[in-house]
Structure formats: structure tokens, C-alpha cells
Amino acid sequence: MDIKQLHTSTDKQLIAFAESRIGGRSENQDSFHHAYTPHGFLVTVCDGMGGGPSGRTASTIAVKEIVDAISEAPDEEATANIVIKAVRRANMAIIDAATENPKLRGMGSTATVLLVGERSAFIAHVGDSRVYQLRGHRKVFRTFDHSMVFELVSQGVITEEQARLSAQSNIITRALGIQPDVEVDVKEVPYLKGDRFLLCTDGIHGALPEAELIQLATSRKSVLGALVDDIATRIDNAGRLAGGGHDNLTLAIVETLANSKLKPAMSKETRLTMLALAIVAVLSITINILLLTGVVGTDKQAAPTDTTATATPTTTGDKVAATQTADKPATNGPATNGPAADKPATDKPATDKPATDKPAAATDASSSSH
Predict the structure, then answer these.
(1) Domains (range + CATH), the chain
(2) pTM
(3) Which residues, including other chains, have CB under 8 Å from residue 175's CB and lie 6 or more apart?
(4) Average of per-residue pLDDT values in the chain
């Protein structure tokens, strides 16, 4: 057992613990390292491969070169480039060591890197070791394995759980120490107070379903150091109960104690919720407008007078324009139920034209919508 407290909360930024165990193998080929660098707090976990001592040598070289390269990088360089160059430096260091010592030829290593600064966190990886970002009890980010089975996952041929249980799950498609030019996946992510970053080799994430691993890693029932030890102990004991021979297992968990300056993007769930609320609001306003318009249009009629016409506006929104009294005579024509005003009566019979019942048209009405 090799549990180590990597960082305390004295700066109120984060706490971190790591542990590595041999599992059921004759040698532990996993390595981890950490450092306080000018670019942030750094943790790296690597899983070596190769016969004899070469696997352990490869992972040891990898973590050392990554830490040294990032610690020595100039401040003015972009952080993503710093991380990529560090992993590539480790790649060349492994190749050079194998070239100098024929007994080490064929050795290689995976690599995971987490660099946490005040602005954001940078995650990089090569191979099938993983980095998770966990929030609450769910996964918000995870690296994608460079392995043969995960290529099948990306094509929809098999599920991730089938990939985990496959006998070919240990065949990786990308590693340090194989080719001079290695492609490094790197991503910048924001973080919130209480987020946890889990770095682990396949001896951890390959030993149990992902949902169970996330449940363990996000538990708040114990302090972080005890939690890291509990995860390693559970997986190690399960391997022994299954007959032994299980893989080396290494994990590191970093918990942030403050929000990053880079703000998280709105989640898909939040965007959908806000869209649904906006649609409900628009429908509600539209229905209210239609109801108000219908009531005023059918119930309101202008009363005819001899000298004035009162215009009552219709409403098309939340505001209603004030009623105005017109100074001009009504234009709907004289009433025909009696003699015309100021004219003497004649022998001609009154016109049989009936009085009109049309409501006066609303004038000077205004409407506003919101």
C-alpha cells in the first residue's frame, strides 16, 4: 500500500490523495507523481508496459519527465502547449532509454495529466488510463480510451461495459515510447467548488462497472484520504477473492475547494429547462392577449350621442390606451327615427331607413405588446 497525501487545503484551493498497489502481479508497473508548479498543481498517473523491469522503468521515466517539463516551462507559453510538450518529452525520454539499453526495448507507458490552476484545469492523456471530472454524484467529463475495444465502442459495435469485460481490453492503440511522434489529447475544463478529479489506471476502472466506480469516488461519507484507500482496498480484495493475478491499481483524487475563474458552460439539461420555461411564458402571454382582445371586441359598443362619439379602443396587450372624447360630430349619419334637426316639418313622410346599430370604430387607440 502506498497512499500519499499530495496536497493539503492550506491555500483553500484543493486537497489531493493518491495510492498505488501491486495487485496480484509480481511487480507494480504503475507510477504517480505530483508537484506545485508555476502553472498550477500537477498530478500525473502512468501505467507502464513491457517485460521484466521495463514497464516500471517506462512509467517512472514518464511521470518524472512530465513533472520536470511542466515545472520548467516559461510562464508566457500557452498552458495547453506546455502540457502537450511535457507528454511528448516523456515519450522521447522512454524511446531514448530503450535505445541505450536493449533490455528495455519494447517498453512503453500510458499517461494521464491533470494541471489545476486558478483559471481552469487542463487534462491530457495517452492510452487507456483515465481522468474523470465528477460533480455531485455524476460524471461531467471523462477521457476516451485509446484502445482497440473503445474504437468499437465509438463505432457503436459494442457497449462500454462489453468493452470493459472483453479479453482484448488491454490492447491499446496509443502509448508513450512506441513512436517518436505521439498524439496527445488535451482539454481545458472549468471546475466548481467540490468537484473531484479522478486519475486512474485500468486496474481501477477495469475492475468494476463505471457507475459503481463513480458512486464510490463521489461518496462524502469519509474524508478524502480514507476514501482513496477504501476504493483501492475494495478493488484489491475483490481481485484476491476472484483468484488473484489482478492488475496493478493506482488512483489519485483531487478535490477543488473553490470555483475556477473560467465559468462552466450551461448544461444541456439547464438549456432545455430554460427553453421550456420560455415557451410556457410565450404561450401564457399569447392566451391572455387573445382573451382580453375577445372580451373587449364583443362586449364594448359606443353609445350614440347627438354631438360626440366616444371611442373605446380594443386591447392587444397588457396596456390599454386611455379613452378619448372626439370633438367632431359623429360620422355615422343622422338618425332616421325622427325629423332632421333645425328643419321645418314637411308633408313628405319620414324616411323608412332604419337606424344603424354598428359600433363606432375605435380611434386613436394604441396597443402595446411585451
Answers:
(1) 4-264 (3.60.40.10), 266-343+353-370 (no CATH)
(2) 0.73
(3) 49, 108, 109, 110, 126, 127, 146, 182
(4) 84
